[in-house]
Design a protein that fits this description.
CATH superfamily of chain B: MetI-like
Structural class of chain B: mainly alpha
CATH topology of chain C: MetI-like fold
Number of domains of chain B: 1
Oligomer: heterotrimer
Number of strands of chain B: 0
Order of helices and strands of chain C: HHHHHHHHH
Largest sheet of chain B: none
Chains: A alpha/beta (about 240), B mainly alpha (about 220), C mainly alpha (about 220)
Structural class of chain C: mainly alpha
Helix content of chain C: over 70%
Radius of gyration of chain C: 21 Å
């Protein structure tokens, strides 16, 4: 198992947002987290690299364990990449520098090596020619692909994608999905929160439906889409389908 | 009574103004360094240190600069060390400046979207690296104008050090006013001296503010 | 031997300190009252560009904001008598504070007036309000509401700055402190206590003024 989550609990004040989540992700597996807003799916995703703390339970990625109240997250984060809804590129750095920053700062790789790594990653997402551009000169879709390249440059074991097409204009969604599809086909382990149901069905190996802070139903996406076992999932698929 | 020509007055006040300028620069630079540390303590991931830094800022912003100078002056004297006025002035004004700059900069740091911290954190950058590589370079851009604006307050603040006996512009003015019996002229010249130091800084700060707003809209 | 702190030597003078604090408050109340009035006038003149007074206020604002308060105080107290203008220490202190705050509040209130949405004035005009009524209800009052917190901060700054009025022997809190430490030879303890008193005054005045702002400037309980 590459990712193991056991009995994860989280409260926001009086609000119990994660009520004992268990999740297993194998190497090379693509997991899609779906559910209504407020169901806890983003919170769960953000717990996997320590952006959210949790109150009880355990997260383990490639043997790197994270407990509640743990503050040293570096080792875990070296194995977990993340791509955000709002891209969160660093506006003061060129595209190339965005990708180079972490390898340079965290891994202390030489500038020359970082640069060739960054160029390779940008080529992978189809943006080799944007190395010297600045984020505000790119379209949303291009920015998001840079964000993916930036995360990949750290060679993570698993990539977390938090609604990465939700902030995009409709005509830009496909270029980002194509990049993700390519990563999946290359065997990258992916955990993604998404509203793109068709994409989730097509790409994912495991579909996880979250409802009121619990994993309400999960399994093979083909089965779940074809025959949801619970009324809540059926209603959810009906509403978004 | 000694006879002072207007040129004698101006020459003497010029020397005082040079001390004012020197003290201002010292306090501004050292205050900036200390302010950066206070800022780190204020926004860092250490709850106890956060509270301490917050208290530091509240105390320095909530008490008169004159009291701060007195406390430095008499406080160091308690340790049996004789403090020259210039040193007490420099220390007091540095602490005062650091508290205000830390608070100004905190505003700038908090103006940077949370997603920038999160993106940097998810790339395994440590908190210090997040601050240094991602947050500060962006915060610096918005901090330039208000920081410049605050430098005017530092120059004006140096005038209070005349009370603990530092012979800067105001103190020199007081001495000359007593010696010449021409307080109207002398304090007028003193005010002019401060104006010449401060007005360009104010103007520069206002211009930075405008260009920044023009760029960001 | 290590220094022995003796705060009892300060407590012996607590009545004098209380009196000094009250006088600082009184000084601030009068100075701030006049200062905000001057600032309101200046803001209107500046915002409406009433020539030639807008220029006069412009120069006044720049002169005051680019010179130290203590120099303004000395100029008023020591300098003006040579023009035949004499006043007591107390009057000079109040005048200096009012003049100082007047300049800052001119700029603060002006910013509030300038931020009035054009549609507000047009709406009021379409309701056949007179120019004065529009100004009073639609421009000035909302402007004061907008900038009240900034105005409060500036008043607190002026109050703390009034500490230097001790230098012209105006009998306020710092003057009391100077007197006490000359008697009990406990300068450090005395100034620690007085610094704490100033801190409390600053917090008190801020809360009080913010409350007044909610109660009287906004004219309804804050939501």
């Amino acid at each position: 198992m590459l990712v193991r989550i056991d009995g994860l609990h989280k409260h926001f004040g009086a609000n119990h947002v994660l009520k004992g989540i268990d999740l297993r992700v194998k190497e090379g597996e693509v997991v899609a987290l779906i559910g209504r807003s407020g169901s806890g799916k983003s919170t769960l995703l953000r717990s996997i690299n320590g952006l959210e703390t949790f109150d009880d339970g355990l997260v383990e990625v490639d043997g790197e364990r994270l407990h509640a109240d743990q503050t040293d997250l570096r080792a875990l984060r070296l194995k977990v990449g993340m791509v955000f809804q709002q891209f969160n590129l660093f506006p003061h750095l060129s595209v190339g520098r965005n990708v180079m920053l972490a390898p340079r700062t965290v891994r202390q790789t030489s500038v020359a090596e970082c640069e060739s790594l960054a160029r390779a990653m940008l080529a992978k997402v189809g943006l080799a020619d944007k190395f010297d551009a600045y984020p505000d000169q790119l379209s949303g879709g291009q920015q998001q692909r840079v964000a993916i390249a930036r995360a990949l440059a750290m060679q993570p074991k698993v990539l977390l994608c938090d609604e990465i097409t939700s902030a995009l204009d409709p005509e830009l969604v496909n270029e980002v999905l194509a990049t993700v599809r390519q990563l999946a086909s290359e065997g990258m382990t992916l955990i993604m929160v998404t509203h793109e149901m068709r994409f989730a069905r097509e790409v994912s190996d495991q579909l996880v439906f979250m409802h009121q802070g619990r994993v309400h139903e999960s399994g093979d996406p083909k089965d779940l889409f074809a025959a949801p076992q619970t009324a809540e999932l059926a209603a959810f698929l009906g509403a978004v389908g | 009574m000694m006879e002072f020509s207007i040129w004698d007055l101006i020459r003497n006040l010029g020397v005082g103004a040079a001390w004012t300028l020197g003290l201002s620069l010292t306090a501004f630079v050292l205050g900036g360094v200390v302010g950066l540390l206070v800022l780190a303590a204020r926004v860092g991931p250490w709850p106890r240190l956060n509270r301490l830094a917050k208290a530091y800022i509240v105390v320095f912003q909530g008490t008169p600069l004159l009291m701060q100078l007195f406390l430095v002056f008499f406080g160091i004297a308690l340790a049996g060390v004789d403090v020259p006025a210039w040193l007490a002035a420099a220390i007091g004004l540095t602490l005062f400046t650091s508290a205000y700059l830390a608070e100004i900069w905190r505003g700038c740091v908090e103006a940077i979207p949370k997603g920038q911290w999160e993106a940097a954190a998810s790339l395994a950058l440590s908190w210090g690296e997040q601050l240094r590589e991602v947050i500060l370079p962006q915060a610096l851009r918005i901090a330039v104008a208000p920081t410049m604006g605050f430098s005017v307050q530092v120059v004006k603040g140096t005038a209070v050090t005349s009370i603990i006996g530092f012979a800067e512009l105001t103190k020199t003015g007081s001495i000359l006013a007593n010696a010449t019996f021409q307080p109207f002229l002398v304090y007028g010249l003193v005010a002019l001296g401060y104006f010449l130091l401060c007005f360009p800084l104010s103007r520069f700060a206002a211009r930075l503010e405008r260009t920044f707003h023009a760029r960001s809209h | 031997m290590a220094y022995q702190f003796d705060f009892a030597a300060v407590w012996a003078y607590h009545e004098m300190l209380a009196q000094g604090a009250m006088r600082t408050l009184a000084l601030t109340a009068v100075g701030a009252g006049i200062g905000v009035a001057v600032g309101t006038l200046g803001a209107v003149v500046r915002a409406w560009r009433l020539a030639p007074f807008d220029r006069v206020f412009g120069v006044y604002v720049e002169l005051i904001r680019n010179t130290p308060f203590i120099v303004q105080l000395f100029f008023i107290f020591f300098g003006l008598p040579s023009l035949g203008v004499h006043m007591s220490e107390w009057q000079a202190a109040v005048l200096a504070m009012a003049v100082n705050l007047g300049a800052y509040s001119t700029e603060i209130i002006r910013a509030g007036i300038v931020a009035t949405p054009r549609g507000q004035i047009e709406a009021a005009a379409s309701l056949a309000l007179s120019r004065f009524e529009i100004f009073r209800h639609v421009v000035l009052r909302p402007a004061l509401q907008r900038v009240w917190p900034a105005l409060v901060s500036q008043i607190v700054i002026v109050m703390l700055g009034s500490s230097v009025c001790s230098q012209i022997s105006a009998e306020e809190l710092t003057f009391a402190a100077n007197f006490i430490q000359s008697r009990n030879f406990r300068a450090f303890e005395t100034y620690v206590v007085v610094a704490v008193l100033y801190l409390l005054l600053a917090l008190l005045v801020r809360q009080l003024l913010l409350w007044i702002g909610r109660r009287f400037v906004v004219g309804r309980p804050a939501t």
